Amino acid sequence: MRDARGPLHPGIGLARARGGRKRRDDDRVFRTRDERERLGIPETRQALERLAAATDSPHHAGVPNLSEPDTVNERARARQSSIVRMLWVILGLNLLVAVAKLLYGYRSGAIAINADGIHSLLDSSSNVIGIVGIAIARRPPDENHPYGHRKYETFAALGVAAMLLFGCQEILGAALDRFQHPRVPQIDALGFVVLGVTILINLGVTWAERREGRRLSSELLLSDAAHTRSDVFASLLVLASFAAAKFNILWADLAAAGVIVVLILHAGISILRGTLSTLSDERRLPPDEIETAALAEPGVLEAHNVRSRGPEDDIHLDLHILVDPESTLADAHLLGHRVERRLRAHWPGVTDVVVHVEPALDSERARSRQGGGLQAKD
After folding, report:
1. How confident is the model at residue 42, as a pLDDT?
2. Are residues 122 and 261 in contact, defined by beta-carbon separation less than 8 angstroms?
3. At residue 358, does pLDDT exceed 80?
4. Quick one: pLDDT at residue 5?
5. If DSSP codes are grouped into helix, strand and coil, which group holds residue 237?
6. What integer best gives the mean pLDDT of the chain?
7. 62: number of Cβ within 10 Å
8. For 185, phi and psi rounded to 5 degrees?
């Protein structure tokens, strides 16, 4: 059957012939102003204004150009290549720093700088884990991993935390041995030079990793930057212990090693929080912002049941939208694609969007707002 709007499913024509049009009109969603205000649903004009005002939000990339082609895969490949290049450079610097500290620690017998050297060596190990993790994460989706391999990067960050905890065990073992056999380390001017140079290198590495980690939304780079930052504080403590050693203060070396362990543990816990947030599918985007963006697309009467999960740069998003019940299946399908393009354009980190298109009937509308988003029965 056909009408002025185009082809319709035969069942729809039969429903109309039997009086289905009247039933559908009676069930169509007509919300009062009070209802809209109670549930926080903006008018179309208000949605557009709120969407324009939200372009300063850290989640947004600006007003979308819906005519641009989808370049999600290209962006992902470029991002991963940038992360790998950064990790190779940092790996070389971390190895240089670790070798310098361990050689001087062996020469002087200072347990604090040995602990700091182990800390730096763990930085290098975490870089290797990261490079391997990225190599796996770059693989395209396959039959066993239809969502891709991006979470392997998160597992690599989890591996960094495990290496930190292993390092703590090694440092504590050495500290216990020094406690049982106390002696003052032999420190000279070379020790201060080694620490000064390595501190400057680590400060540069931390700055570069944090900048690139934020630009690329990389959990791996940000976690490694936290690790390296703790290395800077550890080196400063070693420097203080060296000064104390000049005055024959026996406990300074052990105290510095103990504080270094605390710093390493703190960095490890921070990394665990970030990785477990991703692995436990914690919400990534505010539902009300998604609803506002969807309502800004002409033809969308309501958006609800918004869910998001995944790393900041690989967000999977799904939502329900209500459209005119009299729309053709083809028109409703195209509207869903327009909503998807709009959401991807506003949130570049979104790589997968599932839009459930439903008729704007009373039985389909949202009944409450929970957790910041409108909720309807599934």
Report:
1. 59
2. no
3. yes
4. 38
5. helix
6. 76
7. 10
8. -65, 150
- Measured CA to CA, the distance from residue 260 to residue 98 in angstroms comes to 15
The answer on pLDDT for 19 being more than 50 is: no
**Domains (range + CATH), the chain:** 2-59+285-375 (3.30.70.1350), 72-279 (1.20.1510.10)
**Scanning the structure block, which residue is given the tokens 């020094």?**
178
Say what the pLDDT of residue 46 is: 55
Residues 6+ apart with CB under 8 A from 238: 110, 112, 113, 115, 116, 195, 256, 260
* CB burial readout 266-295, b (16+ within 10 A) else e: ebbebbbebbebbeeeeebbbbbbbbbbbb
Q: Please name the residue that has the structure tokens 């390595």.
A: 198
Place of tokens 């009944």: 367
CB atoms within 10 A of CB 92: 12
**C-alpha–C-alpha distance, residues 299 and 13, integer Å:** 22
At which residue do the structure tokens 């001087």 appear?
A: 104
Whole-angstrom Cα distance, residue 272 to residue 264?
A: 12
Q: Is 166 within 8 Å of 79 (Cβ atoms)?
A: no
Averaged pLDDT for residues 56-61:
45
Q: What is the pTM of this model?
A: 0.59
From the list 277, 260, 171, 147, the residue with the least C-alpha distance to 223 is: 277
Phi, psi of 336 (to 5 degrees): -60, -40
φ, ψ dihedrals at 156, nearest 5°: -65, -40
Residue 208, C-beta contacts closer than 8 angstroms, at least 6 positions apart = 86, 90
Helix (H) or strand (E) holding 317: strand 315-323
What is the rounded average pLDDT of the residues 17-27? 41
**pLDDT score for 301:** 93
User: Under 8 Å CB-to-CB from 143, ≥6 apart: which residues?
Assistant: none
Size of the chain in residues: 378
